[in-house]
Design brief:
The chain is an alpha+beta fold and about 300 residues long. It is globular, with a radius of gyration of 20 Å.
């Protein structure tokens, strides 16, 4: 099967999903393509970009409206045109969600844990904070106790302050343990983060994108638009799995962990197609000043360096 046919299959499988979460795909687009180029884009540009993926103008408008209500994006108008950029909270969520996509965490784990106790929060706020912590990769260690092996206490406090939950939440940082990978700890990690389900999601991602990567290593025949569609779906599907991955230290993961292969595949495929995709963005996306600016320097640091 040719690369073009492989891409058609990826788009077809995306379009079959129900519900079709266009809002999540738009967030992927902002994180991958728009934020590095200033962060603001004309609504018409979004529609043009999403149309080949089966997202209608009506669905784009509906999704943008919802993202605005959820404080992900904010609108600015120039004449009759609307331009959308990430809000402050939206940018914070974006930075947390996308940091892991492009940058592998290779720091050695020394045994620290960040623990967040939610038992003193009222039910509605507790659910909100728990969901936000899960976005950050926390697992549920026990009822109303969330845990993360890498984050520092100071990285959690802004979230709690933003939701006015700081006074009613307990955040602790544990000291390193003498035995980092005891049997009990491994079993607890497996239970708190559902690693089997996560491994299955990574395997599905690999099966989706490896055939396309294999075809492109033989001959890259994708057009700039097709490259951008590929790149968007690649990061979108990888990000969805990664959102539930706390990036646990290697000491706590199985030796054949599928997440390592998935990251390598995503990196290799991204490096093959990003330049062609950037060409389409140069030619087609607009903000209120005209064509989007070139990507910032941080863009080229993705996956250990793109150039």
């Amino acid at each position: 099967m040719s690369a073009k046919n492989q891409l058609d299959l990826l788009v077809h499988n995306f379009q079959k999903k129900r519900p079709l979460r266009a809002g999540s795909l738009i967030i992927t687009l902002y994180g991958d393509a728009i934020v590095p180029r200033g962060g603001s884009v004309w609504l018409g540009s979004l529609m043009k970009l999403l149309e080949p993926m089966g997202i209608s103008e009506r669905l784009v408008r509906t999704s943008i409206f919802r993202l605005t209500k959820e404080s992900w994006v904010q609108a600015g108008k120039v004449g009759r045109r609307s331009y959308y950029s990430l809000t402050g909270p939206g940018l914070r969520r974006f930075e947390q969600a996308f940091k892991q996509v492009y940058t592998a965490n290779n720091e050695q784990w020394i045994g620290n844990w960040c623990l967040v106790f939610l038992s003193q929060l009222e039910n509605t706020k507790r659910r909100t904070i728990k969901e936000e912590l899960e976005w950050m990769g926390f697992g549920c260690l026990a009822p109303n106790v969330m845990a993360h092996p890498r984050l520092e206490r100071a990285e959690v406090l802004p979230l709690l302050q933003e939701h006015e939950a700081l006074e009613d939440t307990i955040v602790m940082q544990t000291e390193p343990l003498e035995l980092l990978t005891s049997r009990a700890l491994r079993l607890q990690v497996k239970e708190s983060w559902n690693l089997e389900h996560l491994a299955s999601s990574y395997a599905k991602f690999i099966n989706q994108f490896r055939p396309l990567w294999q075809e492109l290593t033989i001959e890259n025949t994708l057009t700039p638009e097709e490259s951008l569609i590929t790149r968007t779906l690649l990061i979108h599907e990888y990000r969805k799995v990664l959102l539930r991955d706390p990036q646990l230290p290697d000491e706590l993961l199985p030796g054949d962990w599928e997440g390592r292969s998935a990251r390598q595949l995503c990196r290799n495929l991204y490096r093959l197609i990003y330049e062609s995709a950037e060409q389409w963005l140069d030619d087609n996306l607009e903000n209120s000043s005209g064509p989007l600016p070139a990507p910032n320097a941080n863009f080229y640091q993705r996956f250990g360096g793109l150039k």
